[in-house]
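Now read these lines:
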Amino acid sequence: MAERAPRSALLWASGGLLLTALIWGTMTPLLKVLTEVIDVWLLAALRYVLGLPFLALCLLVAARPTQAPGKLNPGRLAILGLAMTAFSILYTIGVRYSHPVTAVVVLNFGPVISAVMARFMLGTRTAPGFPVALGLALVGGLMVLYGTPGTRERGLALEGGEPLLVIGQICWQWYSIRAQQWLGDRGQIGLSTITSAVAAFWMVLVYVAMWGGGVAGGVPDTLTWREVAYLIWICVFGVAVAIVLWNVGVSRVGLPVAALHMNASPVFAVLTAAAIGLPPTALQIAGGLLVLGGIVYMQLLQVRRARAG
């Protein structure tokens, strides 16, 4: 799926994926704040709907593909949108009903899931150096988690939501592969805009159904300026910007390596906490360096391969 890209493209893709990890690293605490004032089903729908204007603007100013894209297949579009919708719902419910420690552990195994799926769906072999980079990222992520104050006291426990997180990741990785196969000829911005629009359609249908059944709540009466800012961040950056950067990264470095970058999300979450007055522990700093070391190691290998090729 990932073509042999020049060194500059690899570096830009890696930088974009790290920015995606930074954005998604802030999502959990912000979503936690917003779910206290906005219905969770409404919030899930708003994330995609409010991000569409930004994606549409990007699509207007982006360069057109050099070759005319193929005809859109409504069935494929519907399935891609459903996969994104399923991930959004399963992720939200999974995090809500999982132990915070085990949730992070499960999410850190995303690169393993992506490597297995890429192998079975595409026949892609694991890139040289990937197991070493993955090992560093996993160990580093666990160190960041274990070094968080209060983690040892909470211990480890399964609370039922963890399987939903696994299924949600499978849905997202499946979308990432099929979107490149079915819509890659439309460019990454076009791909992201089209699939996000379909996902927004499905999410609105889900919300309306839940609201009609008395499960979902209505629009809140008021929001503070801070809550509005959080909502804009998770819609414009957490969905629109991050999805484009993610799809660009997948198209350049491949799904397993792109997923590896997401293990940096806990590192950026720690940096965010430090910025608001919660300094990291020594174990968190050491773990963060391991995670970033694994990503840099993988990136150096890819740049070397590009140079040799």
